[in-house]
Amino acid sequence: MSLTRRTLLALPLAAPAITRAQGVTEIEFYFPVAVGGPITKIVDRYAADFMAAHPDIRVKPIYAGSYVDTLAKAMTAVKAGQGPALAVTLAVDAHSLVDNELIVPLDTLATSVEDRAWLNSFYPAFLRNGQIGGHVWGVPFQRSTIVMYWNKDVFREAGLDPDHAPANWEEMTAFARKTTKREGDRVTRWGIQVPATGFPYWLYQAFAIQAGAELANAAGNRVNYNAPACVEALQYWIDLTRKYGVHPDGIVDWATTPRDFLEGRVAMIWHTTGNLTNIRGNARFPFGVAMLPAHKRRGSPTGGGNFHLFKGASPAQTAASLRFVKWMTSPTRAAQWGIDTGYVATRPDAWTTPEMRAYVADFPAAAVARDQLEYAVPELSTHDNQRVTQVLNDELQAALLGRKSPKQALDDAQANATRLLRPYAR
């Protein structure tokens, strides 16, 4: 679905079709819609509020589907000379966007004392994926970590403390055994589900972190897919099904996992904190939210999207885009975005706003993903990122389906990724 690096380098970086007219600067804003909840209505409202406060700027949100769709459409639009001025794309796509000379380093635009303070106001764990070659290429916005959701009624029914989440792999296995429910040979409720479509590498990275592994180096030109700790992590994921019998066989779907949880077909799930508001609004039972369980250590990868400013925009559009991004990531808006969606407010001062203080006091689970940032690591990000992660996704699914052993799958992923990264090796 993505364009090759050679093709992208040849694309003309023509100015977007939306131009300055009658004193009003118009900018197109590509936004991914891939999670539950009324996201488009929320973004439309934010854009309207911004335009009311900035009548000289007109923002046109364009909802482009998944993150992969959004990136592909933005690249295609650039080729046609209709590229957006800005977009929210995966934070991990920064290497590819920089390699293909498609985005502008934000620190070259935000140069005042106030601007530098703004760039330094975000949680470091969220900034890391956008920091490449001494520049800041992406600003955190729609950011997350993976958290565990559990059904307190099911825990109570199984004789477990409904207010105690599993703290480590051993407890998660034990709790999942107690909450898996069978009627004869048929499973009517699973103990645990970890989805393996959409973002398999992301969920797997959590297991790998907990096993003590790092999937890639900071430069994004080398991966460690087949390290012993990585093999251990994948083996445990598979063991949840084949050894312990507490996880569905095969590939669990990303999109249906929250629904399975809400409909009582699973006791515990791993999923993005971006589904927190959706689950809170639709659960007909008390539920808990916890950091992911530890093994050798605790941890989750960060996730989600950053704002990126695209080349080809006029100076007026670039300036307007920067004003919009600064407004959207201010403490008040960052707090409101977290409240509206469940994503993590991306800067510490957002958590001190009256609105966020009241929200957390009423719903303490909202702070779990923030607190997990202490243990978080940057999401897997490399040069040629989509292809390098896709080879891992394919091999993870092969192992989960029983077509390869964990070691063989990860050896094959390592070989393919190393080949793809050879042009970037230093």
TrEMBL record:
Entry keyword annotation includes Signal: yes
SUPFAM superfamilies, sorted: Periplasmic binding protein-like II
Source organism superkingdom: Bacteria
Subcellular localization, as worded in the UniProt entry: Periplasm
Gene3D superfamilies attached to this UniProt entry: Periplasmic binding protein-like II
Family affiliation: Belongs to the bacterial solute-binding protein 1 family.
Protein name: ABC transporter substrate-binding protein
Organism: Rhodovastum atsumiense
